Each structure stands twice: as C-alpha cells, then as structure tokens.
Hints:
By secondary structure, the chain is an all-beta fold. It has a domain at 2-65 and 95-101. The chain has strands spanning 2-7, 10-15, 19-23, 32-35, 38-42, 47-48, 57-67, 71-77, 82-88, 91-101. The strands form three sheets. The chain has a four-stranded antiparallel sheet with strand order 2-1-5-6, with no helix packed on it. Strands 3-10-7-4 form a four-stranded antiparallel sheet, with no helix packed on it. A hairpin with a 4-residue loop joins strand 5 and strand 6. Mean pLDDT is 87; it is low at 108-112 and 114-119.
Amino acid sequence: MYAIVRDRGMQYRVEEGQTLNIALLDAEPGSEIELGEVLLIGGEMPIVGTPTVDGAKVIATVLGKEKGEKIVVFRYKNKKRYRRRTGHRQEYTRISINKIVVGNDQKMTTSPEGETDGA
C-alpha cells in the first residue's frame, strides 16, 4: 500500500518503511510527525480524495536534518567583464514513514470489475 501526501506545496509518494527528505521542519530528531493531507491511498482498490481522503494520515519519525547537493549559481554579462559565482545548499528534514492510517468508513472509487454505481 502507498499514499500520496502533500506537505507545504510538495507532493510525495510514500510507502511504509521508506525514508525521504522533505522541506525543513522545526522538529527534534526522534519525534513523530503527522502528515494529514493525504490525496490518494493506492493498492488493489485505490481511494481518491476530493481533494483529500477523510480520516487518512501518514505517521512518520524525524531522523534528522540534512543538506542537499550544492548548486552553483553563475551570473555573466558578455563583453562587460561581469562574472559572479555563488553556491547554495538546500536544507531538508529526513523522515522515516512508520504507518499509513486509512479512515474507518472509506468508499472505494470503483467496483472490482470496473462497474460504476448508479446510472
């Protein structure tokens, strides 16, 4: 089973046991966080939210802070002897996905044989 979650404008596809980097959080290593904006829960019968799945959440543990790879920013103007070189390293929070919790009374989007309900 997997889930697609949204965290501050970014969407991530997560599975239980997976580790990933998200935008920097102000959380202590070892603490648990909850990602509440679950857009989709996938598996044999996917549950699609409108826009989010009611009652669904993803529970994760904060592992620590990390920095991404260095990006070189180079500004240049031809024939003017203007060159500026700077670098940037984005900071991330590394998390480990513990559990994907599905709401209690969820309705599936389609029937097993592709039949639709109603007319």
